[in-house]
Structures are given as C-alpha cells and as structure tokens.
Amino acid sequence: MLKPKTFYLIDGSSYIFRAFFGVRQQLSTSKGFPTNALYGFINMLQKVIREEKPDYLVVAFDSPEKTFRHKIFPDYKANRDAPPEELSKQFPYFEPLVEAYGLSSIRRPGFEADDIIGTLAIKGGQEGLDVVIVSGDKDMMQLISPNVHMLDTMKNKKFMDKEVLEKFGVPPDKVIEVMGLMGDSSDNIPGVTGVGPKTAAELIQKFGSIESLYKRIEEVEKKKVKEKLERDKESAFMSRELVSIDTEMDLEFNSDLMKPGKVDSSKLKQMFEKFEFVSFLEGMQGEVKKSIEVDRSNYKTILTEKALNDLIKSLVKNRSFAFDVETTNKRPVWARMVGISFSFEDGNSYYIPLAHRYLGVPDQLDLKTVCEKLKTIFEDKSIKKCGHNIKYDLIVLANEGIALDGLDFDTMIASYLLNPSSRGHGLDALSMEYFGHKNITYKEMVGSGNKEIGFDEVEVGPATEYAAEDSDMTWRLKGKLQPKLIDSTLKLYKEIELPLLEVLAEIELNGIYINRKHLVELSSKIDKQLLILEKDIYILADEEFNINSPKQLSVILFEKLKPPVVKKTKTGYSTDVSVLEQLAVE
Could you tell me which residue ranges the 3'-5' exonuclease domain spans (predicted)? Predict the structure, then answer.
C-alpha cells in the first residue's frame, strides 16, 4: 500500500510571535533594523522543508481586520497589547519571504489562521492526505484526527490523540467543550468563572458536552460548581463558539498551487542581504558541509619535559592556539586539572596528562611544574587563545594560579550569536553540524550512573584521543565561525561577550561585595515611603483594606471608585501592572 502524500499547514502568525519572543537576542542589521522574528521564522520554514519534505504546504496568516468572533464577543482578544514596534516593522516581509521560497500563503479578511488551517485540514483529509498542522497553539488540538496531527517544531514534539488526552483529559473532538467551560485567558475568552481545566475536564468526561451538562445540571454534585455553571451559562456557550475553529470556509485544496514550487533565489538573496543574514546567504551559495576524516593517531601525548618544551616553542611561534582543560569536576570552581590539550593546526593536537590515577598509569609531568611553564604563554596577551565555553577553562586556570590573557575566541558564544534560535551549541553538536564528524563523548569516557568514574581514572591513551579531539575541533571551528561574524555581530562579540566572560569568571571565583549598610538604609527609606503611600490609598478609598490582595483591590477600584474597566479575568476585574499603569495615565 502506497504511503499517503503529506500536506503541511503552518500557523504563520503564531510562529512569527514565537520567533520574536523565542530568539532571546534582539538581532538587528548594522542600520538598526530588527530581524529576530524574521530570522526565527526562516529557520522554522527551512527546518520543515528540509526535515519533513512535504508534498504540499500552505502558510496561513491572521487577518489584521476584526474577525467574526469579535461580532460574537466585542472583547475577544481585548486583553492583548499592541505588538512591539520592533516586531511590527518586520510584519511586511513574512509573506514575501514565503512567496520567495516558492510556497503558498493564505490570508482571508475576517478569519484567523486557525480557520484557514481547520478548513484545509478537512479538505486535505478528504483528499486522502496525511495532514500535519505545524503549530504550538493548543486550540489546534481540536482538529486532530486519525489523519491529522500536530507538530511543534520549536519543541520538536508531535501531538496525536494520546497527547491531547494527556493535556485536556478528553479526546480531540471534546476539546472545545472543555475550553468552553475553562475559557482562554490568552484570547480573553471568559468561560465559566472559577471553573479551571481540571473541573472542566471532569465535567465533560461525565456529561460529554455543554448541552448535556446543562440539561442534567442537577446531577452536578458540587454546589459551588453548580452555582458557577448556572450563573455563567450564556458565557459557556458563547466561549465554546469562540474557541471553535471554522472548518467550512470557502477554500479549496489546490494541488498545483499548494505544491512547493521553485525557489526565487534572486529575491531570497536580496532579502537575506537586506537583513544581513550571512549564514542563510552561505546556505544559498551551496556551501557543502563535507564530512572530515579525523585521524586520531596524529594526536600526541606529552609525557616528557623535552616534548613539553617543544610544544611550548610551537605555541609561542604560532602566536595562536586552541586549548581545553580536563578536570575532576564539571563545576569549575571545585574542579582540579587532570590534563590539558592544545591545537594550532587542523588534525594535529597534543594532550598533557597531569593527574590521572589508576593502576599502571604512566609517569606524568608534575602539575605545578607544567603550570609554571605554561603560565608565561597563557598570560601573554599577544598570544591569542581560543576555547569552547572558555569561561570554564579560565576559572580552572585561575585555581592553578594562571591569569589567562589574550582571550580571542569562544566557539560556543560565536555559535550562539550566529544562530541564537538553535539549542545545539555544544562542541559535539557543532562538530557534527559543520564537519559531519562525531566526537568521542564525555559519557563514552567516564560512563554513567553507578558505573561512572572520574576523568582522572580514564586511561591516558583514550583520554588523549578525547581531549586532543576537543582542541582540534575547537581550532577548526574557529576557522569556520570567525569569518561568519559580520560587523554588527563582531562588535557585540568583541566589545560585550568576550570581556563579560572574564567578569563572570571573576564573580564565580570570588563572589561580589555588597554594601550592607547602604541596602539597610535604602530598605528603611522605601518602607517609610510605602507607609505614606498606604495612608494616601486608605484616604482615597475611605477605608482600610489589604492592598496586596488583588480581589480586595479590584472591589475598591472597580466597585467603589468605578474607573473604566480595562480588562477582566476569570475571577473578576484585572488589577495587573498594565491595567494600573493605564488607569494612572487616564
């Protein structure tokens, strides 16, 4: 039997916001134009195309106009703030990006992306396609069926019947019933005040639907729950209507239009250049990541004073090297050095074992003597040092009396700056990504669980291969990553990230001083100011109450003083910071 073709429906609007808030670093061009949402969105799009290889694909976007849901409930989504200006500036470029990738995008006045996806999911299912909704929005779970499932690419998680049951306590076709009762604060959908997810699920498990629940309302055992249901009956039905995705829009599945087409390379190149997306431009140029051949037999173990002196001469002559320390503990402050590796040429690396201890261990150079000899080059600012997560090495060296200077490159930080939305900035992940090479893992060296040993118990031979490989890969990665850092990112890297490493390392080593006297004085001053404010509030309210109680505060504000209501929650009037700030202005 032939495997059905796949139809991917991407919740574009949701991913724009998730990309904006998910890419923690506020990326921007050298001219200051924000690009983090665009960057994250492109990453998501490329990942779906590359990994999922969809036969058909549509990206759905929300309409900027009010939808039919606003006619049902004017306060629908009224609690949402306007998008940040940095995000709004990026809005005009998402649909052109999708088009440049040769993909279909759909936006319909008066409808949300959810409705477009819901309608096309049904149509795709009718065509015998395997439908995949690419979204992290829980509302979409109502659409899941035997031939429709959800994929959250940011969490790399699939959702089918089982996952829906775990989340909502009911199967997909009952999700709208549960959400109708519990509401959805993110969309300002009220539901039944005081009925949360657990109670809502229990009620639908017992009664099956909101209609059946109200027909058999006398069977609700808990008096308070029954009272809440009776009070908010109209809200329950309205809320269910609001959360229900429209699957009957006037849309058709068009295989010709919805099949991924030819990429407009010229248009994409222009956009990538405009947004200074160097890594994406390199990808377009067909940069082939060939697997490198690593001959670990080229890695050398330094066991004699002559070999050490020869290595030091080479390091001084080269004026630049990568290094990595091996220790007794993953926490650098408590770690003691077991060995140290160096590399200054692709494929060649050196490991100096210093404190390995096991039966039959070879004679090793004295730790103190080696550190004294290495101290000169480590503290020479003119000799450039490179590492991966070099803050760790910096702290370990400090414990051995070495003040590292000439810090030039950290491959972990460079990787993050180049691809902040990625979660794979470890050395093993980067070696695989850039060189197609699988490093020896730390776990392979020391084991795990009850069988885990310290690195000082690892035999010198395998330890050399592991440690020297780390320095070799770090050196190679520097050559790969350094040219990718464009002007604006390079400035951030050199002026903030690298200097900050040394500050953070010093804090971890020494802690920080606190002016206790000043803090006590400040605390006393603030306490006095708060007492004055408290008295002023009681005068305005004409009574004393618990200011820290949102419930009591909402009663005083909105039932007694009666300013305009900004927004409501399931439990009553909202008194969060944004509401109070707005009232203060008015």
Answer: 299-486
State which H helix or E strand residue 237 sits in: helix 233-243
Angle between helices 175-182 and 233-243 (to 10 degrees): 130
* Helix-, strand-, coil-residue percentages of the chain, each rounded to 5: 55, 10, 35
CATH of domain 6-258: 3.40.50.1010
What is the average pLDDT value for the chain, to the nearest integer?
A: 89
Min mean pLDDT across 112-116, 357-361, 486-490 is at 486-490
| Cα 65 to Cα 50: distance, rounded to the nearest angstrom | 33
What pLDDT band is residue 290 in, cutting at 50, 70 and 90?
A: low
On whether the CB atoms of residues 409 and 478 are closer than 8 A, the answer is: yes
Measured CA to CA, the distance from residue 563 to residue 264 in angstroms comes to 55
Global pTM reads 0.56
- Helix, strand, or coil (residue 151): strand
Residue 261 token pair:
């087409």
Cβ 119 vs Cβ 253: under 8 Å:
no
Q: Are 414 and 434 in contact (CB under 8 A)?
A: no
- Give the single-character DSSP code of 221: -
Q: Tell me how far CA of residue 103 lies from CA of 35, 57, 60, 99, 265, in angstroms.
A: 21, 7, 11, 5, 13
Confidence of residue 287 (pLDDT cuts 50, 70, 90): very low
Any idea what DSSP says for residue 195? -
Task: Give CA–CA dist 83/65, Å, rounded.
Answer: 15
Please state, in angstroms and rounded to a whole number, the distance separating the CA atoms of residues 64 and 19. 19
What tokens were used for 473?
A: 């890969």
pLDDT in tens, 514-572: 899 999 999 999 999 998 988 888 888 888 888 888 888 888 888 888 877 777 766 67
Coil, strand or helix at 194: coil
> What residue ranges do the domains of the chain occupy?
6-258, 296-510, 545-585
Q: Which CATH superfamily is domain 296-510 in?
A: Ribonuclease H-like superfamily/Ribonuclease H (3.30.420.10)
Strand partners, 300: 350
Q: Are 534 and 547 in contact (CB under 8 A)?
A: yes
Q: Which residue has the higher pLDDT, 342 or 49?
A: 342
Distance CA 586, CA 576 (A): 16
Q: Which residue has the tokens 């780390």?
A: 470
CA-wise closest residue to 324 among 297, 343, 348: 343
Contact 227, 199 (CB under 8 A): no
Structure tokens at 313: 């001469």
Residue-wise pLDDT for 469-514, tens only, equals 999 999 999 998 888 776 657 777 888 888 888 888 888 888 888 8
